Amino acid sequence: MSPIRQEVQGYIDLLPDMQLEALKPILTLLANEIPVVETDLTAEEKAAVRQGRAEYVKGGYVPLHGV
Fold first, then answer.
1. Is 30 helix (H, G, I), strand (E, B) or coil?
2. DSSP state of 65
């Protein structure tokens, strides 16, 4: 299982059924939506993605105001 799936599953495991019922419509929409993958990123955007991934691996994040 991918790390993100494990993380999301961990959150789901903590939620009571009542809150899972509230999540169900959102998850249904996400599961049925065709993802849009932007492939024409600028060099600056690609650098921001690389920086964000590196920070995520270290357990951190890159704030949006820094981009």
1. helix
2. G
